Amino acid sequence: MQSLYNSLIYFSQPVISIAGKFSPKLKEFSDGRKGLFPRLEKLLQPGSQYIWIHAASLGEFEMAVPVLKMLKTEYPSEKIIVSFFSPSGYNNKRKHDLVDIFTYLPLDSKYNAQKFIELIKPKMAFFIKYDFWPNFLIGLKNRNIPTYLVSGVFRENQSFFKFYGKWIIKSLQAFDHFFVQNEESADLLKKIGFENTTVAGDTRFDRVAAQITQDNRIEFIENFKANKVLTVFGSSWPEDEKVFIDYINKNPEQKFLIAPHEIKAEKIQNLSDNIKQPVLKFTEMDKANIEDFNVFILDTIGYLGRAYSYADIAYVGGAAGSTGLHNILEPATFGIPIIIGSNYDKFPEAARLRQLAGLFSVKNSEEFDEIMDKFISNPNFRKKSGMIAGHFINSNTGATRLLESYLKAEKE
Predict the structure, then answer these.
(1) CATH class given for the domain over 32-202+397-411
(2) In this predicted model, what pLDDT tens digit does every residue of 334-343 receive, in sequence order?
(3) Do 32-202+397-411 and 215-394 fold alike per CATH?
(4) What is the CATH number of domain 215-394?
(5) Domains in the chain: boundaries
(6) Starting from the edge strand earliest in sequence, which strands make up the sheet with 122-128, in order?
(7) Rounded to whole angstroms, how far apart are CA atoms 179 and 176?
(8) pLDDT one-digit tens code per residue, 59-85
(9) Which of 38, 197, 351, 384 is most enclosed, with most CB atoms within 10 A?
């Protein structure tokens, strides 16, 4: 199986390059890795020691932020290098105060893994949540580089727990310690022989809990809200829009802020065309008095996390279709009730918060209208649900602190 895997990786490189001619996303994936090693070599500073963090995409990077802050404090002389697998992560985070170098992760061939590790010579390595690449992990193990999994999640349907996945289990031996999110993950690891685990929780809770202590003011959203009830729709997709557009069109007395996941011009225009209320886009904000509009489309990035601080109700996108639920913890930290679609099986935090009644799942526009009407007509119910969401965040922080304690003990 290992030989088959390596063959597939080897032949996938030219295939992806050719497929990129027909797919913009694959072209971006392929082009971003061209000249990767010479580019990385120029960025590395001779004599510096590096700590390597790997995040599959943007969401995993956000999980890594509390860890990055901790590492900067505990290892002030070391530099931080962050690798991404996906273009969406790399393109959105090319600069960050806590990171010295951003790079794509090369495809997981034996040659690429060996070359990458030899170049950066990491003092230690951290993988966030998942994205296990056997050749990279084996390379780290062969060089005795301390390696840790942070906020890991394991499920029975993963290849590690199938009859054909025994060879991949060997790559997990690279991890000196597994910091996992839940008991289920620890139990699964134990079944395949790994007891070096700590159920630490999810570092995203640490990340979002810190947000509430920051300056979250956004003057234009404050002016737009104008003391009315505001619902913020975060990271919405067309499938989500089908759920909530009718409600927006029927309720001119409320305010609605929509932050679509994709901000391509044609998609923004389609969204705008379907809204029958006065609608203003961020990119056209200078042309009008923002208070005169009922709907504001945030067709830019960088504001959503703070925008939730103005919300009375939040709808988080992704679960109305098959793209995957986006971050429910960002609005929860501000103590507001949350609505999502019905496809959230792979998001245990959503299931837990729904059980507590801080989050509500809807299958269609009728169910969305029903819960919104209840929130609007019963402010006490809305506030109680929001308090539950806020408490949920506060009671689940501490994953980064456990990792920090472990690393301190290792240094002693």
Answers:
(1) alpha beta
(2) 999 999 999 9
(3) yes
(4) 3.40.50.2000
(5) 32-202+397-411, 215-394
(6) 101-104, 79-84, 50-55, 122-128, 147-152, 177-180, 197-199
(7) 10
(8) 899 999 999 999 999 999 999 999 999
(9) 197
